[in-house]
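Consider this today:
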Amino acid sequence: MRKTTYLLPVFVILLVGVLSSIFVVDEREKALVLQFGQIKAVKEEPGLAFKIPVIQEVVRYDDRILSLDTETIEVTPSDDRRLRVDAFARYRIADVVQFRQAVGVGGVRTAEDRLSSILNAQIREVLGADQVTSDTILSKDRGALMVRIRDQARAEATSLGLEVVDVRLKQTNLPPRNLESTFARMRAEREREAADEIARGNEAAQRVRALADRTVVETLSEADKEANVIRGEADAQRNAIFADAYGADAEFFAFYRSLQAYEKALKAGNSTMVMTPDSQFFEYFKNENAAAR
């Protein structure tokens, strides 16, 4: 009985020691075995692992891709139009030993603070380069800028044991104090473009009208020319007919022309004419021989 009393506490202590020496590494994490702050083992494969109870401790780090949102900062591109930029990054702990040595007990929080400083510095450097304008940042070319920021941040983040997987610019906006002047400049540019388009349209319209007027003048001139030619030919034919008729019977032709003159002169509503009876105009009214014909 006394022996059992002594063995039971020893068994419990041994059981607790064995259990405390075993730990499980999840597939989503990496672990470091520390002894008095010094790294004694690195556990990157999932499964069971062992440590010395009490003396050693286990520190776990997430092995998944993590997200970090940066603070909004102002950058000045080469065209001096200030922009407010905020970004986010995707990163993972690539080297847990270097990570522990770089950030110590601060862990992920300290690492993210230092990574955020690296990202902001690279954003300012890339977006403030000589060849980069605000239009470039706001256009589809921003993809190439984000790649440059990622590559440069990745090179610096390796000292922290981190791998920067991706960097994206979430927003690139103008500061409120610059919005009004920017909108005014945009309106002025659009108004200038509209004025240029109107001027080009008016110029084109004038060319069309001038061509149409020229075409009308040329058409009317050609029509008048043809009309005069036809009229001249008709007059010539008429005169030829009159000449032939006069040559065939001159007296009858004279009588016919007198009848036409009577018809035009004695129409209703014409002005009153005062003539002597022996006037030449009434020759055929008083000439019995002519009347008989």
Q: What stands out?
A: The domain at 66-174 is CATH 3.30.479.30 (Tetrahydropterin Synthase; Chain A). The chain has a mean pLDDT of 81.
